[in-house]
Amino acid sequence: MCQELVWMADHMEQLDGVRMLQAKDWGIEDAELILFCDACPVRMGFWCELGDVTLSFQCRIDDRSHGILYFEALAVLSALSFALQASFPPPSHIVVFTDNSNTVNMFNSLKATPTYNPILMTAVDLLLQFNAQLRVFHIPGTENHVADSLSHFNNDLAYNASPSIIINPFTPPRVMLGAELL
User: Fold this and answer.
1) Does 65 score more than 90 pLDDT?
2) Nearest-CA neighbor of 139 among 101, 178, 91?
3) Are 33 and 91 in contact (CB under 8 A)?
4) What is the mean pLDDT of the chain?
5) Which of 170, 173, 150 shows the shortest CA–CA distance to 160?
6) How far is the C-alpha of 173 from the C-alpha of 155, rounded, in Å?
7) Rounded to an integer, what distance in angstroms lies between the CA atom of residue 21 and that of residue 111?
8) How far apart are CA 120 and CA 73, in angstroms?
9) Does 22 have pLDDT greater than 60?
């Protein structure tokens, strides 16, 4: 917990004050980029539509020391990292849908147990670095079929759902405290 407090104090010291005008309420209709995520115990996936192309990513998980909630949250962080680092200019309003309500609550409250704090801290670092805002919403699993297909590496189902889909591998961002992001 000491690392988290030092991280927060450093950020508070470096920030230029409360951004009242930029902290306006906004919704899905204001998003510049919308992404969909999912994870299973051994894989993660996310996707978004960019014009007439559906761009998607999937990753195998070699780490068995964390549970599914960790990887659901890591999938959201991976989508956010892609959104901010792969676009020029990066979007300022990003929406991510996930079928895990605990992950939605974690990102919307920025409150988690210590295991998940590095994921949230990395997300905040990215949002501050790129001057962006994030909203995470729940989507029922039955409506999250493309992300589910990607996270299970069932690419035939993903292609059936979206014939223009382009599937790429990805490596999730590092979430160690003090580490540079990928």
Assistant:
1) no
2) 101
3) yes
4) 86
5) 150
6) 23
7) 24
8) 9
9) no
- For the stretch 49-54, contacts whose Cβ atoms lie closer than 8 Å and that sit 24 or more positions apart, written own/partner, are 52/164, 53/164, 53/166, 54/146, 54/162, 54/164, 54/165, 54/166
Q: What is the CATH number of the domain that holds 91?
A: 3.30.420.10
Q: In angstroms, what CA-CA distances link 76 with 11, 57, 58?
A: 22, 12, 12
**Other residues' Cβ atoms within 10 Å of the Cβ of residue 117:** 19
Is 46:166 a contact under the CB 8 Å cutoff? no
- Domain that includes residue 125, residue range: 31-169
The residues that bridge with 58 in the sheet, in sequence order, are 45, 169
Where residue 160 falls (left for φ over 0; alpha for ψ -120 to 50; beta otherwise) is alpha
Is position 141 within any domain? yes
Number of domains in the chain: 1
pTM: 0.85
Mean pLDDT, rounded, for 165-170: 96
d(CA 24, CA 14): 22
CA gap 43, 113 in Å, rounded: 22
